[in-house]
Recover the amino acids of this structure.
């Protein structure tokens, strides 16, 4: 128990330092609208035909080291589930999660309410990621260096009825703003430490005390997103 509290304290202190080390910035957001036909089958026959109206958002953002030291962190989405979003209407959060749909071995993210026919999966934060995955997900940024990423997610334009107060409903009569949230977990480091127990523990404790190995939550500034 004492060891648990010491690790927790180290994580909290590292998070305080980390907030001044990594910049998350949305560079631009583009979108395109699509309409597709969906056939619902019953007894191998088409029982109903409907249309699916979606808006595809492409968010370009970067992670930048704004400190004077070289930093490291694990980042790999969706495998490590590092990313979440929140959408604001004035001061109210409209949607603060992403819904994952598994389709043909790919992951599709929906902001707000997904289509009724979507094959939804729960978002799970992995507790024991594969060591190879972690090593391939380790980023090192020198002072001032940045890395650019692109995230695609979808908005179901066939929204649920507003009167039902459905979570994720977007009132198109108001401007909306997107915040990008990056979650870094440095405690994954124990999965890559090799050696006997004492040596592994010593190395892990060293990593956890290292302020340049980042962990914690980092948020971008709000960027306007178009739901009109």
């Amino acid at each position: 128990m004492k060891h648990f509290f010491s690790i927790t304290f180290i994580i909290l202190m590292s998070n305080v330092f980390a907030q001044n080390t990594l910049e998350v910035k949305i560079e631009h957001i583009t979108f395109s609208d699509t309409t597709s036909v969906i056939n619902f089958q019953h007894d191998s026959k088409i029982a109903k035909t409907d249309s699916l109206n979606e808006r595809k958002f492409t968010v370009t953002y970067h992670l930048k080291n704004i400190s004077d030291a070289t930093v490291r962190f694990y980042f790999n989405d969706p495998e490590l589930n590092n990313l979440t979003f929140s959408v604001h209407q004035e001061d109210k959060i409209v949607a603060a999660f992403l819904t994952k749909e598994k389709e043909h071995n790919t992951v599709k993210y929906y902001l707000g309410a997904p289509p009724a026919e979507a094959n939804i999966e729960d978002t799970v934060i992995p507790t024991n990621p594969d060591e190879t995955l972690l090593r391939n997900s380790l980023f090192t940024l020198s002072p001032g260096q940045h890395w650019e990423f692109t995230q695609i997610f979808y908005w179901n334009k066939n929204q649920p009825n507003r009167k039902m107060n459905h979570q994720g409903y977007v009132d198109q009569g108001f401007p909306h703003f997107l915040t990008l949230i990056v979650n870094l977990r440095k405690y994954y480091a124990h999965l890559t430490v090799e050696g006997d127990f004492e040596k592994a523990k010593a190395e892990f404790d060293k990593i956890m005390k290292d302020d340049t190995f980042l962990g914690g939550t980092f948020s971008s500034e709000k960027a306007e997103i178009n739901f009109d």
Observations:
- Confidence is low (pLDDT under 50) at residues 1-17.
